[in-house]
Amino acid sequence: MAKADIEIPEMREYPVIPILKPDAMKGDGPFVAKADFQTVLGYPGELVDNWETKAVEKLGDLLSCFRSLRVYLDSCVHCGACTDKCHYMLGTSDPKNMPVARQDLLRQVYRRYHTLPGKFFGKMGWQWGLDLIGAKEMDKAVLDDWYNYYHQCSQCRRCSVFCPYGIDTADISMAAREIMASIGKGQKYCNEIIGKVYRIGNNLGLPEPALRDTLEGLEEDIEADTGVAVRLPIDEKGAEVLLITPSADFFAEPHVDGLMGYAKVFHEAGISWTLSSYASEGANFGMFIGSYENMRKISLRIRKAALDLGVKRIVFGECGHAWRVAYSFLNTLAGPFDFLDPKYPVPQHICEITYGLIQEGKLNFDKSRNDDMVLTFHDSCNVARASRMGNVPGGQFIIPREVIKAACNHFYDMDADTIHDQTFCCGGGGGLLTDDLMDLRVKGALPRMQALKNVVEEHGVTHMAAICAICKSQFTKVLPYYGFNMDKIVSVHQLISNALILTGQEEG
Amino acid sequence: MWFLTGFYALFFYFAIIVLVAGVGYKIYEYARTPAPLKVPTMPAPLTRGGVVLRILSEVVLFRSLFRSNKWIWLFGWMFHFALLLVLLRHLRYFIDPVWGWVALIQPFGKYAAFAMVIGLIGLLVRRFTVERIRYISTPSDYLILVLLLVIGMSGMMMSFVVHTDIIQLKAFFLGAMSFNWQLIPSDPILLLHLTTVFLLMIVFPYSKLLHAPGIFFSPSRNQVDNSREKRHLAPWAAELEKAEAK
């Protein structure tokens, strides 16, 4: 994607709610999945005959399966509370990126075909009646808007925090994407990736030998660096912990530095652990496409790996939506996990492990090794608003920060209305981390970039830490558009890796 | 006169039936549809009791709306709580003898009408003037506000300007409820007031007014954060598992 196609929004000192620019982001949306990518997931290869009727029927099915959808489609009063809360709206000014307007794209079809007045006015052919209640026929224009604008939602749930009824646009986006895939119009990026998970075991399509090779290389790196032999085991039966981590951790920067951090933590704590070549992926794109079945199928791979390897605990690495699926859904989708050690929650987050060890005084740090950095922390949306860590509500905000502070001397938070449950998405979540959406990704990062700029100017922040593979990849790509260095983004466990003094490590 | 009385008595029955049956059916539908996944907006309470408090803070204080937008909160909250007082005050026309606390709140209920109308005007003005809200407004959004304004203002007219025969009105309602019809006063303002109120009752189950029962069923607000401790499984998901096990 040429850089010239991307219009970078202007950063302002104070965030301003933009004036609407209708159709600013009108377009064809991301690439549509080819037949092969569709059929592997159980969807038709191309737009089916009668797709209008099929879409309406599928919506009916989903309404009977998901209370959320029913309640959310009925309850919106168009109060406007969410209209200035979406990072894509703030970055693009397109009114259809206001959460309520995005929801209305589906709601108008719901009103037409699944409510009494809609059915009545539709049968009588009274257009004024349909206009009155905001109902619309399912047609090509509606489908095009769905495909385009439901792929401009990163399912970050920020709008749901502010909605007086908790209406969650993420749920509505997921339903819309599921309907589209089921009539033959799925998204290439997500569906191709899910296919790779089924075929090879991870999103990146890394086969087992390549994985082993990479891990050996990392072991050598750590030994060269510290003089201590730290292992990164794979498929080791009888290990205590099965580590499930996003496959980006195996090679992308700064992800891989985080993976070395996890390895050092396990090593230092004396916890035996292993990766699995069968379930070598933490990500679960089944959530992004709103498919319960696919999300479940991917989750069951983790259950099988845990059973085959005979582990006692499951721990997840730094990945936002993976942690949502793990924390909130894994027990539902692939449980019960009664074969694991009942002393530990299932699953655990790597930050919970590290934090626990810090509390017990089992890890020694030399914080000065991170003195070249002044840090801030980006709360990833799925961790912040869709899951928890530790045993108090809001632990997901406290624990990563405590972990960072244990390893660093200089830490400053961004503005209060851009962190914790009000955090802004990186702009690349929810299945949008693809080059064909680069323009959207750059624009969607605007609110986070503005908040970052503020702490850079006020506190001299040099680096931003995150615990999500998508956030890390997205920021690596978009930071340069806003005049920041791409290596400004770091993994939380990279900081741990830098500062942790391993037993027997040579000083240096 | 008897024609008018008959018309409004039947209109009253019809409105009540549509409201109760319509909203009742919607509640049944919400309750029957499973929420297959744990999706509370975090941080969420860890216990049932905590969830009750969370829902109460939304229903009584409009907590999320307060965090979101102070103007919408101000007008919205003012309107809803004034409406509640006004409704409670109106109980006196449907019960005999009047309960002590209903008698006690009469003056509050009467003046709450001002707050109610001011809140509604505030919401309507925002709908016209704020570009983003204008963009998302459908004709029904305006009509419902106008309907409520007509209800509030016609009611205030009767409270403060041209009184209707309130004794006779109470006789009408008590009569209608015991199927022993009594004449309805024929003041146009009263008839306008009743017509708009009945219309509102009729559109309730088929419009966005469903937000009232909806909020209690919203999974992002009413779920306990305990997914790691307790397995949450919808009946249809359990069926799916069983079918696969075979």
Task: Detail the topology: elements first, then pairings.
The complex is a heterodimer of chains A (508) and B (246).
Chain A: H1 35-40, H2 51-65, H3 67-75, H4 87-92, H5 99-114, H6 116-124, H7 127-133, H8 140-149, H9 158-162, H10 169-182, H11 188-199, H12 208-226, E1 241-244, H13 255-269, E2 273-274, H14 292-309, E3 313-316, H15 320-334, E4 348-349, H16 350-359, E5 375-377, H17 381-386, H18 395-407, H19 438-444, H20 446-459, E6 463-466, H21 469-478, E7 489-491, H22 492-499
Helix pairs in contact in A: 2-3, 2-10, 5-6, 5-10, 6-7, 13-22, 14-15, 16-18, 18-22
Chain B: H1 2-32, H2 48-61, H3 63-68, H4 70-90, H5 100-104, H6 106-129, H7 131-136, H8 139-161, H9 166-177, H10 188-203, H11 211-217, H12 219-222, H13 235-245
Descriptive report:
The complex is a heterodimer of chains A (508) and B (246). Chain A has 22 helices and seven strands. With 508 residues, chain A is mainly alpha-helical. Chain A folds into two domains: 23-186, no CATH class; 200-412 and 461-499, no CATH class. Chain A has a four-stranded parallel beta sheet with strand order 2-1-3-4. A three-stranded parallel beta sheet of chain A has the order 5-6-7, with helices on both faces. In chain A, helix 13 links the parallel strand 1 and strand 2. The longest helix of chain A has 19 residues, at 208-226. Chain A is globular. Chain A starts with 34 loop residues before the first helix and ends in a 9-residue tail after the last helix. The mean pLDDT of chain A is 96. Chain B has 246 residues and is mainly alpha-helical. Chain B has one domain (2-238): Transmembrane di-heme cytochromes, Chain C (Fumarate Reductase Cytochrome B subunit, Up-down Bundle), CATH 1.20.950. Helices cover 73% and strands 0% of the residues of chain B.
